[in-house]
Amino acid sequence: MEFIHRGWALIADGDNILFHDSGEREELQEYYIYDGTLKKLNEQEYFQKKYGKASEKIMNIYGTKMTDSLHDLDGNIYINFYQDGYFKKFDSIGNLIRVYEDNFDTIYDIEVQEKTIWVAYPTANIIKRYNLDSFNEEFSLGDRMDESILCLPESLMIYDNHLYICDTGNNRIRKLNLTNLNIDEYMTFDEPVWEYVRTQNKEYVRLQSGIYSVKTSIA
């Protein structure tokens, strides 16, 4: 593995990753882009890449908070801030479409799969899939009392018809087949893994000790 920097909130942008670093005591906020070389971004550049044309309106709501955000195939943006018990759907220019209220547990991450959405509840050791229209639950994985399945699942990403789950408390990434819902182990580490993203040619993780490139190319 190649160490890149401290930081959080990895965003894949073509063959680059973006992230922010608030320092060990959260006394500063710096933004970076990495494409093999580490470069600083200013605040406006970072959030324009994160939110696109919706950046001004969304920042009027969230400011510079480090939200979990994703874009669906229609250009809509889903945003969750981990201290909220809900997530929001915006159109591509930042107009609010819907608020999804969730009373199950604290939400830490979301990931859209066609007409459904996956939600991570690390303090419950559970992830769930909901229908985006009705918000009815369709599938659940994990158990509050059994950490062997998932332990503190912090973040979710979908690639190649698989859901990649950062099983933070078990120091591993698990891979859930979205067709048959079988789950396998994908990567293991010697420390907690908080985030996982892919660019066009590389894979990156955010471990307890920092951000690393873990492979030179996607197999």
Structure description:
The protein is mostly beta strands. The protein is 8% helix and 50% strand. The chain is built from two helices and 20 strands. It has helices at 43-51, 55-62, and strands spanning 2-5, 8-13, 16-21, 30-34, 38-41, 68-71, 77-80, 86-90, 96-101, 109-113, 116-121, 126-131, 137-142, 153-159, 162-167, 172-177, 183-188, 193-198, 203-207, 210-215. The two termini are 16 Å apart. The mean pLDDT is 93.
Short description:
The chain is mostly beta strands. It is 8% helix and 50% strand.
SSE order, as H and E?
Answer: EEEEEHHEEEEEEEEEEEEEEE
Mean residue pLDDT: 93
Helix content: under 10%
User: How far is the first residue's CA from the last residue's CA?
Assistant: 16 Å
Low-confidence stretches: none
Structural class label: mainly beta
- Quick one: how many beta strands? 20
Tell me the strand percentage band: over 45%
Quickly count the helices.
Answer: 2
Strand adjacency order, main sheet: 1-20-19-18
So what's the oligomer here?
single chain
Major sheet attributes: 4 strands, antiparallel
Rg over CA atoms: 17 Å
- CA-based shape: globular
Secondary structure layout plus pairing:
Elements: E1 2-5, E2 8-13, E3 16-21, E4 30-34, E5 38-41, H1 43-51, H2 55-62, E6 68-71, E7 77-80, E8 86-90, E9 96-101, E10 109-113, E11 116-121, E12 126-131, E13 137-142, E14 153-159, E15 162-167, E16 172-177, E17 183-188, E18 193-198, E19 203-207, E20 210-215
Antiparallel strand pairs: 1-20, 2-3, 3-4, 4-5, 6-7, 7-8, 8-9, 10-11, 11-12, 12-13, 14-15, 15-16, 16-17, 18-19, 19-20
